[in-house]
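Deliverable D4.2, example record:
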Amino acid sequence: MLLCVDHSPNALKTAQYVVANFAWRDNMAITILGFIREPSGDVFDNEEEHEKARSDNEAIIAGVVEDARRTLLDGEFPEDSVTVKMIRLRRKSIAAGILEEQRRAPCHTVVVAGSKMSKTEEFILGNVAVKLVRESNCPVMTVY
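Output generated by the structure prediction step:
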């Protein structure tokens, strides 16, 4: 299982969902995949501010990933069944990063946090869950 987390409000709900619905299964391997967004250097006055924003993003995601890991371990998943991976996204979308990782290390299921948005927002910004459902070659669970 690929458990995808970012700093969205529903990110930890994905880990809670996995515990509630899959903790009873034996031989379940879960990879927690965290996404570190690289901020554009164009919005900062100098390299020092840019580097601070970069390290702040990394610290936030590392904390969310650790919280998800702790949730799984507290939910009775064996420690050796939970792995953590963090990837940096520069110019590609979270959906593209998930699809790339899912194809690189095949998994049977992807679990991702959903975000409620209007049809207009979805059209303009795109929706990670919708893109994954359309393009993934395995089941995708969206947790709201």
